[in-house]
Amino acid sequence: MKLTLNSKIQNPKSEIRTPKGGTSGLRQRGFTLVEMLLVLVILATLAAIVYPKVMGRSEQARQTAAQTQIANFKTALDAFEVDNGYYPKGKSGLQDLVQQPRDATSWHGPYLDSIPKDPWQNDYIYECPGKHNPSSYDIYSIGSPGANTPIGNWQTQKR
Question: Rounded distance, CA 119 to CA 144, Å?
């Protein structure tokens, strides 16, 4: 098809319009109320099935992230102990992994860049000597609000 300057491009919709603004030959159809309600019921059913499964995975992912962070703390604390001959003492001992304590003469840190919060945005709790590990330390997260099971270095969480 060759276009020239004299050829006109016609709007296909202009042929369908009637002088009164309506359309001829075309039937406009919308969704009925029954169809809309059916779609809403289907979406609600899908949400009721998927939502609990997704939320359960979210909590499991947070627990796994806390276990991973505790394992990172253990690695850093063991490196501190190898260099200095002891684990950091007291509840604020995790700061000794970032900043050199006054009494550490063989400190080769920082062992961590910073002290992260747990996945629920709480501080990790460090105790040396530990209640569960009296010869070393306990490090744990209190876990999700409402859960009475802390996630610590003395136990293994069920997956």
Answer: 9
- For 56, the token pair is 């359960």
Q: What percent of the chain has a predicted confidence (pLDDT) above 70?
A: 79
HSE at residue 54, side-chain half, CA atoms within 13 A, is 6
What length is written for the chain?
159
Cut 0.70: pTM above it = no
**Boundaries of every domain in the chain:** 60-103+110-159
Is there a contact between 88 and 31 (Cβ–Cβ < 8 Å)?
Answer: no
65: pLDDT strictly greater than 60: yes
Torsion of Cα atoms, 15 then 21 then 25 then 29, to 10°: 130
Residue showing tokens 């550490």: 104
Tokens in use for 51?
Answer: 């939502």
**What would the two tokens of residue 100 be?**
């050199």
Which fold is adopted by the domain 60-103+110-159?
A: Glycoprotein, Type 4 Pilin (3.30.700)
User: pLDDT tens digit string along 5-34?
Assistant: 555 555 554 455 556 655 555 666 777 888
